[in-house]
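Q: What changes when phenylalanine is included in the input?
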Amino acid sequence: MQERLELIATEAKNELIQDAATLEAYRIKYLGTKGIMKEVFEDFKQIPNEEKKSMGQLINSLKNTLETIYLEKKEELENTSTEQSDTIDYTKPGARVPRGGRHPIHIIKNEMIDIFARIGFTVAEGPEIEDDWHNFTALNTPEDHPARDMQDTFYIKENVMLRTHTSPVQIRVMETQTPPIRIITPGRVYRNETISARAHCTFHQVEGLYINENVSFADLKQTLLYFAKEMFGQNVDIRLRPSYFPFTEPSAELDISCFICDKKGCAVCKGSGWVEIGGCGMVDPAVLENCKIDTEKYTGFAFGMGIERITMLKYGINDLRIFYDNDIRFLKQFS
Ligand code: PHE
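A: The predicted holo structure follows.
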């Protein structure tokens, strides 16, 4: 037994302890709950009583030796760890930092900005908390106008609301700039709607506005046709259906031909061959007058499109809610 204890002590003194991991391995091997010391104490029970006293002392001293080695090495490592830089292996590959990706809504938004930038549109932005003047009244939607029912509004207090469309940015730009004006206004909008696969209380729009001398409906149509072909492919057609908005006259709904089935009719276009992507029209002179723009001299067109709608068509997504779920499995596909 005595010999064995001496052997253990020598072995322990020769252990190579050079970092936290080998130190911990040492602790487990000698001092751990299933370690060598534990075994020694177990064996001690078998020793004849007359030897117990002397052996006990030897065992205790071994235990002290093992613990001292541990504590000394531990202190040594703690003191040197800050000076370890010269032992770093500079050829080791670095730790990978996980990279995020753009949200699909942003990818499409940026694509839309690029497409319109190529024909001279610049980006304008405005506040998401709007006042009644910019969101409704200046857009030719007076207090008791039935068109206000078209959009369910989140009011913050009287006359202050979350904007229900990006059209108020048109007003802000027309109030502060003189024509020619050629802008698009990408941004988030809010409506008090029941959330479903096709509707959400928050979504994104890109609105366009062009004011100049001699702007006609033909310019509007050509601009939208150019956009549709750039966005969805050169084979795509557009269709304008008569509609109503308080701020445009005449007004139209903008459809693109279904690029999935090539107008033959499928689930996406519900068999019609066409899908709606926005609204448009010639800016109502009353709106121009509200912004002190000379209606004898200037005319203009405006359009508004939903970014979610276009993103869903482009990527074949059939539930709007997935954009706001923050599900990494969905988002990863776009990075
Ligand atoms: N602002 C309208 C909407 O949110 C869209 C639109 C913009 C229509 C510009 C015509 C002209 O529904």
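Observations recorded in class: Residues 165, 167, 207, 245, 248, 279-281, 302-304 surround phenylalanine (CB under 6 Å).
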